[in-house]
Amino acid sequence: MPLAVTLLSLCQALLVSGNILLIAVSPLIGAQLASSSWSTAPVATQWLGLMCATIPASLITARLGRRRGFVLGNLCGLAGAGLAVLALHLQHFGLFLLATWLVGIGIGFGQLYRFAAMEAAPEEQRERAIGLVMGGGVLAAFFGPWLARTSHALADTPFLGSFIGLGALYLVALLLLAFIRLPRESSAQSVDDDAAAPARPLGVILRQPTFLLAVLSAMVGYGVMNLAMTATPLAMAHAGHGFDHVATTIQWHVVAMFLPSFFTGRLVARFGAGTMIVTGCGFLLASLAIAQLLAADYLMGTQGFFLGLILLGIGWNFTFLPATTLLTRCHRPTEKARTQAANEFLVFTTGAVTALLAGPLVITLGWALLNLLLIPACLLPIALLAWRQLALRADRPQIEG
Q: What is the pLDDT of residue 83?
């Protein structure tokens, strides 16, 4: 495996560490600086920043190169971490929202690490390259909660130390990026007829059954996971669990999200992306069922949240990574930037909306009913996959990249 893939994996770990930290502490900071109704607003603005960055990030990296784009994204994240420190010192909620928005922009650029890894790896190792980069999130599972726990170590301002540590992680990522050598755009493209073919209209690309399956699976995986995970700190606090229990639960949830990445690529190669997506939806449904058992007191509180989020993390992995593999089959080299931009925008808009809705929904509906209403969403990729298989069997004409 090329050194660039390994370094991208470390950058991914540092990136996700910041994401986890925000998920663990931002709802608590929001409740502290504003009110419970606005507790998940900082997470939502982070996702809003990510959503705003998706299309520009793909176009900027296509024009300037992957590495320069990643450096720009890290600088945005570093600025956001510094602004968060100032906001916490001043106890200013609006300033903190601006800080998480900037961090979200940095995360938006970093979401392209997985595509850069595929381009840097030989064709026969591309699935493994995605898995290795996403597997960097396992390190983040320990960095992120550790940063959250250090929040009480500095002065009397809660969570101030977390964002000082976050800024340090972004500085380390910038240092790693200085050593990464990525292939030029022209050398990363395959030499075939498609490489020289003119780009098709975006609407033609988006209507492909394979693209629809890829983007829907990623949207469902991210949406269900993000809504349940963002609401978990509030639900656990409401159930009387302390912050240490919340941080530990989130930590092992993130391990479950990223640890399977080391072998998900092999499973996709062996069983197919469709089979893995169905399996991922099954794990998501099992996680939602745990919430119902918690509500009925069939499971102990802390253990129930822990088991539910473990299943939730595995479900996300088995839907999102195969969806990434499918996406690479939907475009020609000349269509890559626009196709990736459309996918990232749709997926992370879903993340922004679910993060914004998590707080009000868990307060108004309750933990159990919220999870129950997510069940139909988990069935959508399965239904689309079944329709796609029927279309293929009927030999319906379709345009594939």
A: 94
Q: How far is CA 342 from CA 4, 347, 365, in A?
A: 26, 9, 32
Contact between 77 and 106 (Cβ < 8 Å) = yes
Residue pair 323/381 in contact by the 8 Å Cβ criterion: no
301 — pLDDT class (breaks 50, 70, 90): low
Tokens 């509500």 belong to residue: 295
Cα-Cα-Cα-Cα dihedral sign, residues 340, 346, 352, 358 = negative
**Are 221 and 320 contacting, i.e. CB atoms less than 8 angstroms apart?**
yes
Query: Buried b / exposed e across 354-375, counting CB within 10 Å, b at 16+?
Result: bbbbbbebbbeeebbebbbebe
Q: Are 304 and 293 in contact (CB under 8 A)?
A: yes
CB 294 within 8 A of CB 369: no
Q: Please, are residues 148 and 24 in contact by the beta-carbon 8 Å criterion?
A: yes
Q: Cα–Cα distance between 116 and 109 in angstroms, integer?
A: 11
- Helices and strands in the chain, H and E counts: 19, 0
Q: How far apart are CA 333 and CA 200, in angstroms?
A: 11
CA distances from 69 to 48, 56, 110, 299 (A): 19, 10, 9, 47
Instruction: Tell whether pTM > 0.85.
Output: no
Q: Which residue is it, tokens 């990296």? A: 61
CA distance 19 to 225: 14
Q: Which of 244, 223, 221 is nearest to 233 (CA)?
A: 244
User: Do 318 and 276 touch, CB atoms closer than 8 A?
Assistant: yes
* Position 187 confidence tier, pLDDT thresholds 50, 70, 90: very low
CA atoms of 205 and 209, how far apart (whole Å): 9
SS3 121: coil
Q: Single out the residue of 148, 183, 173 nearest to residue 76, CA to CA.
A: 173
Three-state SS across 320-353?
HHHHHHHHCCCCCHHHHHHHHHHHHHHHHHHHHH
Asked whether residue 73 carries a pLDDT value surpassing 70, the answer given is: yes
The answer to whether the beta carbons of residues 324 and 218 sit under 8 Å apart is yes
